[in-house]
Specification:
The chain has one domain (3-258): Rossmann fold (3-Layer(aba) Sandwich). 36% of the residues lie in helices and 16% in strands. It has eleven helices and twelve strands. The chain has helices at residues 11-22, 41-50, 66-71, 109-120, 138-143, 162-171, 192-203, 213-216, 220-226, 235-241, 250-258; strands at 3-7, 26-29, 53-56, 79-85, 96-97, 124-128, 130-132, 149-150, 159-161, 180-183, 210-211, 231-232. α1 crosses α6 (162-171) and α7 runs parallel beside α11. The longest helix is centred in the N-terminal third of the chain and has 12 residues, at 11-22. It is globular. 40% of the residues are buried. This is Epimerase.
């Protein structure tokens, strides 16, 4: 029986765990509702000894990857996966970026270093743009009064539905999917304004007024989000392991968040 061990059972990794369990896999994990404490070295070592596949969704902390810092020596000899970020590409001025684009030039240098370290171990590294899904979408920002429309002409982002990430990770958990970096993004980069406007239309309400970046009074993290402008190409994942997003644009994805599909 295949055995998946997950470092960091959060919003996204929990969807991967659900898919694996539905296929009859044994799954154990740290974080969230996981059954292994990250700091329990003996328990982690025991779980890794049984694992055929290892997936990490743990981001860098204090400039280093916590999983690699503590358990690097236990990871060899099995399928490895890492949930990274398209933030490793930095600002592209709105241009398309694929996996051949340089990394480490943006604001997420620690993430880029972790990304490179997992690649050096022979992992499948999944570079993810803005993640959304049920309970974590434009609808929640709108109802909580946190949605913004920012007057930045030409600003675009890529995004991906959480279930499409789960599909992509599971599709890559085969010997036929070679190690390397893979962008998992939908087919339609778009402005955040377009997403908010469409979500408001589905809710039957008026969108928030347009604001300048200064008027929006965003947090430093949110301002950093708007400091980068790129379109993320997803062709490699499609070619190599046959992944295709079930939610190819934010329109289908948002509609699914209003009526979530049944769990697999």
């Amino acid at each position: 029986m295949a055995h998946l061990f997950i470092f960091g059972l959060g919003y996204t990794a929990s969807r991967v765990a659900a898919r694996a369990r539905a296929l009859g896999w044994r799954v154990s994990a740290t974080g969230g509702s996981g059954d292994v404490a990250f700091d329990d070295a003996a328990a982690v070592a025991g779980a890794l000894a049984l694992a055929s596949h290892v997936l990490s969704s743990v981001p860098p902390a204090d400039g280093a990857d916590p999983v690699l810092a503590r358990y690097h020596h236990l990871l060899a000899g099995r399928w490895l996966g890492y949930l990274s970020s398209t933030g490793v590409y930095g600002d592209a001025g709105g241009a398309w970026v694929d996996e051949s684009a340089p990394t480490g030039t943006g604001r997420r240098t620690a993430r880029a270093e972790a990304d490179a370290a997992w690649l050096a171990l022979g992992a499948r590294v999944f570079r993810l743009p803005g993640i959304y899904g049920p309970g974590r979408s434009a609808f929640e920002r709108i109802t909580e009064g946190k949605a913004h429309r920012i007057d930045l002409p030409g600003q675009v982002f890529s995004r991906v539905h959480v279930e499409d990430i789960a599909d992509g990770v599971m599709a890559a958990m085969t010997p036929d999917a070679p190690p390397g970096a893979y962008n998992l993004a939908d087919d339609l980069p778009a402005s955040q304004n377009a997403v908010i406007e469409h979500a408001c239309s589905l809710l039957g309400i008026e969108p928030p007024q347009m604001q300048s970046l200064e008027e929006a009074n965003l947090s430093p993290m949110a301002r950093g989000f708007y400091a980068e402008n790129r379109r993320v190409a997803n062709g490699k994942a499609k070619r190599v392991f046959g992944w295709n997003p079930r939610y190819p644009t934010y329109r289908e994805g948002l509609l699914s968040c209003l009526s979530p599909p049944a769990a697999p």
